[in-house]
């Protein structure tokens, strides 16, 4: 808030932008909120003036938000140490998710070679989404990742285990059976079950929002949670694998490569 590309873990940045200039706006995706302390006439006139200045900038909406004197001398959390901790937490979280995504690409793509393309599709669809249909498409991409990875880890079979079918459309049963066979502890299995259930719940919520024609913030928030839960489920699957994932190389690519290098062979 206040300025872009500012690092509040650096004390000079905080004093210049957090203290001297102060926080005046909050950017929320394509919306901007003008921060004011109260609804006094002087504050409302300020909002009117700033709103007119921002009209030529292509924000989806320009809103008013009451800060209730936050970021002022009346806010006991408005100091450098608190700003530094918040900045370092955000940086650490970025690093944490970077580690997770690195492991997903580095390990799961051995057995699910098309996973990179499918994850990229989720990213592109979600980052550019503007309508309910766009978010529904991002959700569908998440579901395809779930189904594709399940097919790679535990292909469909006519086998019945503990009364549960493991056929093509039984993705949930097959993924849980994979988890059981890679058993480390009951905690791991329970975690997989909980995360799959959460992911299915997000899909149902997004389907409901799409059917109601709802879009905007509620739809984007649900879709974002769907994307995050998909990533965390992939991380869970990596954590329970006791041995390296089997490398899955498509035979037709090897054959084509061999023939291109040895055109005289039949």
TrEMBL record:
User: Could you tell me the superkingdom of the organism this chain comes from?
Assistant: Bacteria
* Protein's name in the database: Uncharacterized protein
């Amino acid at each position: 808030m206040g300025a872009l590309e500012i690092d509040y873990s650096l004390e000079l940045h905080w004093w210049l932008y957090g203290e001297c200039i102060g926080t005046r706006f909050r950017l929320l995706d394509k919306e901007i909120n003008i921060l004011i302390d109260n609804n006094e006439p002087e504050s409302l006139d300020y909002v009117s003036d700033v709103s007119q200045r921002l009209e030529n900038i292509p924000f989806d909406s320009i809103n008013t938000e009451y800060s209730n004197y936050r970021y002022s001398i009346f806010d006991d959390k408005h100091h450098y140490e608190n700003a530094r901790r918040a900045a370092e937490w955000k940086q650490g979280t970025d690093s944490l998710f970077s580690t997770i995504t690195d492991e997903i690409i580095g390990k799961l793509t051995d057995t699910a070679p098309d996973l990179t393309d499918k994850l990229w599709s989720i990213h592109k669809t979600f980052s550019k989404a503007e309508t309910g249909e766009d978010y529904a498409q991002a959700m569908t991409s998440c579901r395809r990742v779930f189904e594709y990875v399940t097919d790679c880890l535990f292909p469909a079979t006519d086998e019945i285990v503990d009364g549960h079918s493991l056929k093509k459309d039984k993705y949930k049963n097959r993924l849980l059976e994979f988890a059981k066979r890679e058993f480390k502890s009951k905690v791991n299995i329970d975690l997989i079950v909980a995360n799959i259930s959460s992911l299915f719940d997000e899909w149902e919520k997004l389907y409901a929002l799409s059917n109601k024609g709802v879009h905007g913030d509620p739809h984007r928030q649900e879709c974002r949670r769907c994307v995050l839960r998909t990533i965390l489920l992939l991380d869970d699957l990596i954590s329970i694998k006791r041995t390296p994932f089997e490398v899955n190389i498509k035979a037709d690519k090897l054959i084509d490569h061999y023939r291109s290098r040895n055109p005289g062979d039949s």
